[in-house]
Amino acid sequence: MQARLLTTAPEKAEADALILPIFEGQSKLPPEAVALDKKLKGAITQLLADREFRGKFMELVPVHNLNTLPSKWTVLVGVGKPDDLDMVRLRNALQAAGRVLRKRGHRRVTVILPKAVAAMASASDMARAVTEGIGLSNFDVGSLKTRHEHAVTQISALGIVGLDGDKAASAAVKDAVVLADATNRIRGWVNAPANTFTPTVFVEKVKEAVQGTGLDLKVLDVDDMRRLKMGALLAVARGSDEPAKMIVIRYNASNARIALKRGSRGPAGPVLALVGKGITFDSGGISIKPAQNMEMMKSDMGGGAAVVGAMLAIAALEPKINVIGVVPTTENMPSGHAIKPGDVVTGSGGKTIEIINTDAEGRLILSDGITYAVKEGATHIVDIATLTGSIMRTLGPVAIGAFGNDPTLMDLVRRAADLAGERVWELPTWADYDGLIDSDIADIKNSTVPWAGATTAALFLREFVEGRPWVHLDIAGSAWQDTSELKTVPRGPTGSGVRVMAQLARLLGES
């Protein structure tokens, strides 16, 4: 998608459709749309006066322009009450609007930002939110359908009216296109059926994606894992006929097209590691999951996919910090070879782990991924995973659960989430919880009491970071929205975490 700021008047904008955000309860037309409405013979004013459009969040009303304007349609989009509007909600409202317009076959869209809406954030934040919102609408959850009820197209051109050519906003638009494209790419991967997206296919997709980006790719196979004594990852992989892989992607800031200034952070400076869970299908193993909704376990590689998406965006955004992406990937299946509750395995860091529940496999493969990142020189670690049902029950699909051991890094993650238009909520790893992962027969165990499940999973992962600043992002809820009652987040795979990690790399490189 191409996107740019426009200085033209709304009524002169050439597009298939204009999008006009309206606040809930707004009874008067925004001044910026008066001339537009005049061309429409007062149609928008009449809709507001008759309260046939009330501006409720995600309310959409299309108005045909009847050949009175260079554009074909004007779509009124409700953005809710002013006190509730932030850039997360604006993205989601525009993403919903974009989806509707795509189904109508519209390719060229212009968003008109009234001053009252534009004043809700800085010009760059507003430009980023609008661009990403429309860009994210280009994802099609029904890509495998052979028959579609509606037209299937992509929004190829976006214009934004109301930011007056602001330089920072123009730069934000360019970055937002990169971030939206990276997010949409991995949403397609998360959406793919597990029979067409095995660990081997995952590797092939990554190889295709990194071509021409300047990223360095290395893939570890089972023999490499045995040599490195990755007993936790290999244990999970034993139940599947599909061979495990570990994807390692490197971004070297000193090789980027933008040269580092003397004295800035280069190869000897901080190294950010992004470690993502890549379970391409999770049956639960011997501790098998219930049949209901098991088909959704094709998305259990959402964290690993998010790491790849973030690395692709990082390569284009060129932050001034070295980054390594690590994605251990396998299936978790029951078979005669599968690990069993009560087994003890040894991870690559040397810790022994008692297996209590084979469905707590994500933390096992992440432990070897984190250990690998530590050995490769990571100074800061962020892991991301669709890890626990506990976080789904706590936060639903609205927010990412975050846990950490370093307030400074956690603060940067929050700032990155604000830039990314995602919600992050920190949960505790207080010392009060210590002891919950202690094992009677091994160093630690992979599952514990039936409460505080998200926290105890984080405590398990903390055991492997070797004291480095670390944040764990649990996206088990936020990676997929499948709740029809919740209209604030568009349904389907969300690409949760891609933009957060990419923005974090930039912030950490500037700190």
Assign the CATH class of the largest domain: Alpha Beta
> Which band does the percent of strand residues land in?
15-25%
**Secondary-structure-derived class:** alpha/beta
Mean pLDDT: 93
- Compute the CA-based radius of gyration: 24 Å
Task: Give your account of this protein's structure.
- The protein has 511 residues and is of the alpha/beta class.
- The chain folds into two domains: 2-163, Leucine Aminopeptidase, subunit E, domain 1 (3-Layer(aba) Sandwich), CATH 3.40.220.10; 180-510, Zn peptidases (Aminopeptidase, 3-Layer(aba) Sandwich).
- It is built from 15 helices and 20 strands.
- It has helices spanning 34-39, 43-49, 87-103, 115-118, 123-136, 167-191, 199-210, 222-227, 231-237, 302-317, 362-375, 389-395, 407-420, 453-462, 498-510, and strands spanning 2-6, 17-22, 60-64, 73-78, 108-112, 157-161, 216-220, 245-251, 271-276, 278-282, 322-332, 344-346, 352-354, 380-385, 399-404, 423-426, 444-445, 470-474, 480-481, 492-493.
- Strands 7, 8, 9, 10, 11, 14, 15, 16 and 18 form a nine-stranded mixed β-sheet that branches.
- Helix 3 (87-103) packs parallel to helix 5 and helix 5 (123-136) runs parallel beside helix 6.
- The protein is elongated.
- Mean pLDDT is 93; it is low at 258-267.
Short description:
The protein has 511 residues and is an alpha/beta fold. Helix content is 34%, strand content 19%.
